[in-house]
Design a protein that fits this description.
The protein has 274 residues and is α/β, with parallel strands linked by helices. It contains 13 helices and six strands. The longest helix has 19 residues, at 95-113. Bound molecules: adenosine-5'-triphosphate and nicotinate mononucleotide. This is Nicotinamide-nucleotide adenylyltransferase.
């Protein structure tokens, strides 16, 4: 039975998923345990949103394959889904826009139950929210939250000059919230402590400590595949089969976008950044 005093949370993970690994799946489990352990949240769904091809990161294979591998990996989880809205957009999309989109979808689905207007209503309401305080009020009233789920490397990338817009960081962390999984070589607590912006929103950042040190990275997996090495137990077997059937990840595919000097996410430089 639903506990009325807990907020329902949807976890959204954005990234390349090139390819999806067991650690990506484990992030969701760790985050769910952590949030539910607070007694304040009930995690109802996880969403994986692979980035589009226009992201132009080196070695990024086509989104259709990354989506399909993520679908295979999540099909038996029962609560984690894959969403291709982001990668269907013709241009690379800032993460804040992806977060907004999924929050609107979430509200629309919730209000649909009561036959109230759907996406339009959710959009209008977001526009009406003119401060993070008031949106916090709405979130509590709805009992619905969407949080960005990421590894500590992504949180720490907030500090790379001109990579993220300051207002986007404030919105993601201040309005929605972030669940961050520790990763070897990172120290998210220290990073938050050293950033005045993140410190301001520290209560909206949940740091989840992964005690079983787990260095799986998609880069490592692609390297092993190029060298004909086994990647068993790093990825679900269904994903390994898919990679073999479609001959994905070769020396050639790793050169994809290698010529790109400035990927779209590195291209902005305006006065709003510091
Ligand atoms: N081992 C890990 N521990 C914690 N977080 C992870 C781990 N692997 C991936 N993540 C997180 O998963 C999300 C998606 O990651 P991404 O697809 O970029 O995988 P990755 O393994 O970091 O890829 P790459 O090695 O190609 O940079 C990011 O938020 C990333 O921080
Ligand atoms: O919104 C931004 O400004 C922004 C800047 C840099 C990266 N991102 C997102 O962060 C994710 C990083 O993924 P990856 O695989 O490059 O670690 C990916 O989903 C990007 O779209 C987002």
């Amino acid at each position: 039975m639903e506990n009325p005093s807990t907020s329902k949370v949807v976890l959204l993970a954005c990234g390349s998923f090139n390819p999806i690994t067991n650690m990506h799946l484990r992030m969701f489990e760790l985050a769910r345990d952590h949030l539910e352990d607070t007694g304040q949240y009930s995690v109802i769904k996880g969403i994986i949103s692979p980035v589009g091809d226009a992201y132009e990161k080196k070695g990024l294979i086509e989104a259709c394959h990354r989506v399909e591998m993520a679908r295979l990996a999540t099909e038996s989880t029962g609560w984690i889904t894959v969403d291709s809205w982001e990668c269907q957009q013709s241009e690379w999309m800032e993460t804040v826009k992806v977060v907004r989109h999924h929050y609107e979808e979430l509200l629309a689905a919730e209000y649909n139950k009561d036959d109230v207007d759907t996406v339009q209503y959710a959009k209008k309401r977001r526009i009406e929210e003119n401060s993070f305080e008031s949106s916090d009020h709405h979130r509590k009233r709805d009992g619905l939250q969407l949080m960005l789920l990421c590894g500590a490397d992504v949180l720490e990338s907030f500090g790379i000059p001109k990579l993220w817009k300051n207002e986007d960081i404030s919105e993601i962390v201040g309005r929605y919230g972030v669940v961050c999984i520790t990763r070897s070589g990172s120290d998210p607590q220290k990073f938050i402590n050293q950033s005045d912006d993140l410190w301001k929103y520290r209560k909206n950042i949940y740091i989840v400590h992964e005690w079983v040190s787990n260095d799986i990275s998609a880069t490592h997996v692609r390297r092993a595949l190029r060298r004909g090495r086994s990647v068993r137990y790093l990825l679900p077997d269904s994903v390994i089969r898919y990679i073999q059937e479609h001959s994905l990840y070769s020396a050639e595919s790793e050169q994809k976008n290698a010529h790109v000097i400035l990927a779209p996410y590195q291209r902005y430089s305006d006065a709003s950044t510091s």
